[in-house]
Amino acid sequence: MENLIVNDILAFSLIALLLVISPGPNGVLILKTASAQGKHASILNIWGLTVATFFHGALSIFGFSALLMQSADLYFIVKILGAGYLFYIGVKAIINSYKTTNNDKETKNITSTERKGLSYFNEGFITQILNPKVSMFYLAAFPQFISPDNFSYLNAFSLVSIHASIIFFWFTGVTFAIDRIKSSAKNSKIGNWVQRLSGSAMIYFSSLILKQK
């Protein structure tokens, strides 16, 4: 029985890792924020992603995810909200990349954490909440690792904690890697181009969400 539990944990961790590192809105969000607003703003994004993961887990554990998927109207609304939010972030990133100048960067950096800290957290939280890839994971894959005969809230939330930890450490590593690359880059316009590419990717992902059935 112990070996089976260990095997389940390892299998879940591997699936969660593959989900986290695969291309998607979360990775694009971190790329955009870390390259344009810096590592501190990106870490706040990551905290938002992490907290939202526990929210997804709770919805699945208490049965709300299945209820959502059974309602075509509710699922359609969530899909529209998700696509619309990603489109909004994408367009905003592209517009901001053209607004950024060397003169106002210093002022933005001084007030960024105080004035926009909550907005960066919210950005990560909402992106994860409306991420259909994560919703499907907690609807289809997650229940396979929970035994209805020997159910435990502690075990269920422990699995969610593993997923959340992978998200936190993976994207923190990505953030510091981007920060190092940005620090060594001589061209200050690189961040603007990364924002434009990230914004375009967000718009692309929003179109993919709309195409999902």
How would you sum up this structure, described in words?
- There is one protein chain.
- Residues 101-113 have low confidence and may be disordered.
- The protein is built from nine helices and no strands.
- The termini are far apart.
- With 213 residues, the chain is an all-alpha fold.
- It has one domain.
Tally of distinct domains: 1
Rounded to the nearest angstrom, the distance between the terminal CA atoms is: 39 Å
Largest sheet: none
Shape, please? globular
Count the strands? 0
Give the averaged pLDDT, no decimals.
80
Task: State the helix count.
Answer: 9
Structural class by secondary-structure content = mainly alpha
Low-confidence segments, given as residue ranges, are 101-113
Query: What is the CA-based Rg, rounded?
Result: 18 Å
Strand content: under 5%
**Helical coverage, percent range:** over 70%
In short:
The protein is mainly α and 213 residues long.
Question: In terms of topology, how is this protein built?
Answer:
Blueprint: H1 2-21, H2 25-36, H3 39-61, H4 64-70, H5 72-99, H6 102-129, H7 132-141, H8 153-184, H9 190-211
Helix pairs in contact: 1-8, 2-3, 2-8, 2-9, 3-6, 3-7, 3-8, 5-9
